[in-house]
Amino acid sequence: MQNRRWLGVMAVGLVLVVALGGGCKKKKTMGSGMGDDNIGGIMGSGMMDGEGGGLAGRPDGVTEMAGQFVPVYFDYDSSQVNDAERSKCEMVAEYLRSNAAVGVIVEGHCDERGSSEYNLALGERRALAVRAFLVGLGVDGARIQTKSFGEEKPVCFEHDDSCWSKNRRGEFVLFQ
Q1: How many domains does the chain have?
Q2: pLDDT higher than 90, residue 94
Q3: Which of 116, 145, 149, 156 could hold 41 in an S-S bridge, CB 3.0 to 4.6 Å?
């Protein structure tokens, strides 16, 4: 019952985001291969944007749909999607299969332990693992981009296991 209510609220939010953001055209720029935030995220999926940028470009007029799905959490120093998190990926895959015009960026995140370089690489492995799982569920890989933020975007700032486990995640950013 709560799932239906939650999905209804998310559907209304999605409609509002599309309606309000559809009129804004994003300027297309060539990137350096780094994320669009100034914190050093890396992006990739092996796809080209047709302009030599090395990244799958989003079409003009892209609208991000934030907050649609809950994050996938990872064990310490792992990039394996464990059994408890697979249902989250299945929900995303079902949505993407039903909405062919929607793409997704899988963002990989880590806790603060380890070097920045190591965590960027681990975040990318996590994003790629989620991407591979979605492809295995029938989602066209061309609609999935990956991005790593490493340890740069924590959601919890305490220095303990409980907090670190919340920062070891893969997040979904849908776009149209």
Answers
A1: 1
A2: yes
A3: 149
